[in-house]
Amino acid sequence: xxxxxxxxxxxxxxxxxxxxxxxxxxxxxxxxxxxxxxxxxxxxxxxxxxxxxxxxxxxxxxxxxxxxxxxxxxxxxxxxxxxxxxxxxxxxxxxxxxxxxxxxxxxxxxxxxxxxxxxxxxxxxxxxxxxxxxxxxxxxxxxxxxxxxxxxxxxxxxxxxxxxxxxxxxxxxxxxxxxxxxxxxxxxxxxxxxxxxxxxxxxxxxxxxxxxxxxxxxxxxxxxxxxxxxxxxxxxxxxxxxxxxxxxxxxxxxxxxxxxxxxxxxxxxxxxxxxxxxxxxxxxxxxxxxxxxxxxxxxxxxxxxxxxxxxxxxxxxxxxxxxxxxxxxxxxxxxxxxxxxxxxxxxxxxxxxxxxxxxxxxxxxxxxxxxxxxxxxxxxxxxx
Length: 384
What we know:
By secondary structure, the protein is mostly helical. It has helices at residues 32-41, 44-48, 67-84, 89-98, 107-117, 126-137, 151-157, 163-166, 174-178, 184-208, 213-216, 220-232, 238-268, 273-277, 287-305, 308-330, 348-364, 368-379.
């Protein structure tokens, strides 16, 4: 039987997991969270992440981050932090690899557009959709829908949730109602995600030419490490200098997070995972580093995410998603058979809500390039 005895007493452990919705025999060679990770890696939604991008759309370049490479980078950062804090690496890896499974094509522009389309039908939020993917939409097992993941993995996937939705989600929604904390592994993965996308969006922004080093040098956090690189390696320039600078920024954030979290854990003195749930959050940056992280995020919003070239692509993305949703709601017969709600529901409003949700599932599952292809098929007379 797999043992988690090397972990801290307040870490999530397989032996004390709240289990799966459908009981399954334990594995003799893998922990329950290893099994979750493996199921996520082999699922269809995970493979699709290769063609869903972060900021830049798939056809804009081969070297920009995708949701897949981002998820792998989050997992690497999260595992490193977890090992230092004696937390469960397998659980943080499973959460990291699954946290973006519900993302739409075209990043946040696609999500925002789909949320507007779904406003009358309960809205759309990618955290909830990621949970829906692993709980319901994946079809890999004969005994149940979804991947039947452990409670702790599902809890980590659901980073945010309104009280209205929490009441609909059963056990995994209870912490939002009771105002409890998630496991330290879930808290950790949330911040590893932030470290990864902030710093790697800088890299992609520079690579695309939408950001310049002159702009970034106005940001004290970047300028400090860029000067350090120049001093350590006189004459260094180009991609090598940028990569070395970003590497040092990531390292500084990780080192600060580990040190601050260690102290918070010591101060709170949790003795079990239940203690963790009943305390204030323990995984955090220092106040000084949190300020730097916030300024970095604000810089990216002002200079990259709102860049006119990104806005142009975002505008097209919203149009594609909105057009697809509207035409499929007007004419559900345009959908593949699996996504058509048959006229067995007598209540028209219920039927409409169910059909809208199936359309949202269909669109959210699309890659960037498939969404563009589907749009051409439905709106161009030259496509079939």
